[in-house]
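queue> holo job accepted (zinc ion)
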Amino acid sequence: MNLTERPVDVYQPKSFGLDMDFYLRAAASGQVHVQQCETCANFQHPPRFLCSACASKHLNWQAIQGAGTVYSWSLSHFTIDSAWTDSLPYATVVVESLEGVRFVGTFSGPQNDLTIGLPVNIRVESIGKNFAYIWFDSISETSKENG
Ligand SMILES: [Zn+2]
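queue> job finished
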């Protein structure tokens, strides 16, 4: 058998799999969940089939505490998604949670407040049962709103 005769459907990765699990859990629960290893307690994101620290396959989903700090960010001045047109420019942010995992969301506060290391609350906005936005709210703005 040469390469052109090999069956192409031997390995079919799931089109959504673990990445989709991350968003479905957020949409269903209103909280961000990340994987934690049962063997070594390592938190990890994005989700994987094995622990990135010890290669254990025994992983559970755990709700995070819901706070972190800005690791990186970028302003978008153009979008092809009409849902975001009225929000331009918006800030796409990478936050490192208290658990030490980093993930992407959108900053809700004034963009002039954005700085590396800014403390933020991590908030899930569920849109139906299959979709969720992840928002990062400046803790200083949250404090002002709550008195
Ligand atoms: Zn582990």
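queue> Residues 37, 39-40, 42, 51, 53-54, 56 surround zinc ion (CB under 6 Å).
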